[in-house]
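Hello forum,

I keep getting stuck at the same step: I have a sequence, I want structure tokens, and every attempt I make locally crashes halfway through. Rather than fight my setup again tonight, could one of you with a working pipeline run this one for me? It's a single chain of 192 residues.
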Amino acid sequence: MDNAYSLYDPQGKRLYLNLEERKAFYEASKRQPDKVKTLCQLLYYTGCRVSEALKLTADRVDTAAGEIVIQSLKKRSTTPHYRPIPVPMEFMNDLAVVHALKSQIKNRLWTWSRSHTWRLVKATMIEAGINPDMPYSTGKGLRHAFGIHAVSSGVPLNIVQLLMGHASMSTTAIYVDAVGEERRALVSRMWT
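Reply #2:
Ran it on my machine without issues. Output:
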């Protein structure tokens, strides 16, 4: 399998946060300043890429439907591709309050640079007790964790593909190749 579509680096180290680390990241996000908290929780709830989060504007937060409409930046087409991702209403309410959504219709929610955003996400991971030297201690590691969690929770693979904005099902299928507790949880469904 091509390394670009793997959950492991060339040394065999995982590139995703496990369930415990993912939960710790979420808990650490609650202790961050409001805008950092909402960014970290957007990544947690949607599995979007950091660059996609930074491009999010207030007019693509559909509070009535409880969905965040992410513009996929990975597509190679000239036509923009958008994917609506349902999120908890509590998170939607936090976004509305922190970002004053009604008064900033077309404004970006976060105006930070990509490198500054990476540092904020990394700092949240460190606060969560996630080893910053490991290859999964990244926004992409959190994105992979979202995919694995979705599959482990029984979300059909075609829906995971839509949520993550993958053009190919073979890309999405890497999330079925989880290990440890994640793999055990998937396989244990057959035991009942």
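The two ends are 32 Å apart (CA to CA). If your local run keeps crashing, start a new thread with the error log.
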